[in-house]
Amino acid sequence: MKRHVALTLLIITTLGVVDAHVDLNEVDGRSFLATQGRLYDPLGWLEDQANALTRSCGAVQRVDLKDSGALAALAGIREFSPPQSHSAQLHQVLRSGPWWLAEVSFDALNPAVVVLRESAEGMKIVEPAIWSGSTQPWRVAPRIRRHLRAGAPDMPAQLPACLEPQTGLFES
Predict the structure, then answer these.
(1) What is the mean pLDDT of the segment spanning 96-114?
(2) DSSP, res 1
(3) In angstroms, rounded to a whole number, what is the distance separating the alpha carbons of residues 88 and 84?
(4) What's the CA gap between 136 and 12, in Å, rounded?
(5) Residue 149 — φ and ψ, nearest 5°?
(6) How far lies 50's CA from each of 37, 81, 162, in Å?
(7) Is the pTM of this model over 0.85?
(8) Edge-to-edge strand order for the sheet containing 61-63?
(9) Beta-strand pair 122-132/112-119
(10) Alpha carbons 74 and 80: distance in angstroms, whole number
């Protein structure tokens, strides 16, 4: 068989297989690839790659979970929606100036990423900037970062950019 015929058949076969097994689905105004009943977020993957290449985490501090600031953040989160929030457990804490990000899980509530702001009055939760629950079908980190930036527009951009969720809890 001649090379151009073989190449043409290969291309046609590949396009046929892709057409039969991969679809483009729209969910909440965003396109996702669907294959074998699962949705994939290629735009989220691209956002993750761009974020990894362009972020600058020099001004962001990873805080030890036993640090007094981390414990103050945990105390504020535990008092936010009692009694279920009393079981909050920290997974990671990031800080940039007076702004804090805490990734937490609970016994009876969805896992969450919470933005807090430190002031003279103490540590305060920024209520519009709380992500709780699954991100499906969106890719985890870009979806959470976008939500946090929208809820706390004054927060330094590098703080959510440096967030890499440590638990798989947001994927279910």
Answers:
(1) 94
(2) -
(3) 8
(4) 33
(5) -65, -40
(6) 28, 36, 12
(7) no
(8) 61-63, 89-96, 99-105, 112-119, 122-132
(9) antiparallel
(10) 10
